[in-house]
Amino acid sequence: MSETVSGFFLTQVINYGAPLFALTLFFGAIGLPVGASLVLIAVGAFSQQGYFEWGLMAVLGLLGAVIGDTLSFSMGHYGKDWVEKRFGSSPSWINARAYFDKRAWVAIFLTRFLVTALAIPTNLIAGGSGYKFRRFMLYDTLGEATWVLLYGGLGYAFGTQWEVVYEFIGNFGRFLLGAVIVGAGIWLARSQLGKPRQVEQST
To answer: Taking the model in full, what pTM does it have?
Structure first.
């Protein structure tokens, strides 16, 4: 199903150019399964073959991705009151929020192009935790620019072999996602073990 959707959007980008490309990356940034990375790599490859002007595609694609991230950040921001009511008194939430605040720029930057599956949750957490919007925009724009230039550049460099590039990046991304999940599990386990246990007093 996802490959069919990706193929559809890639066809529309080939037919209609930069505006559809920007819209595709916008949809990807808000979590729709449009295969944004695949389309980005393919557009880089087709630009090398003369179908597109790469500079224009890169700028509009970056704009679409950043607008999409801003929207998902806003969803987290306007939903933070519900989150605070639901989880605000939870020690796990408090610890996770403090941990995120200290390393938010790393999470925001890296999830734009390395662990892209965690980009939407990161945006929602950033918005819901009260993280400053201007800082989010700085690291988000840097990360998305890296994504556009890196993925599109690889497509441009490898040309007709762009599908091989996409497959390699997909496998590498899944490996990193698994590593992050395992690391998060270890961190949660250690934080739970590190809590002092209450000794029940006999009456």
So the answer is: 0.76
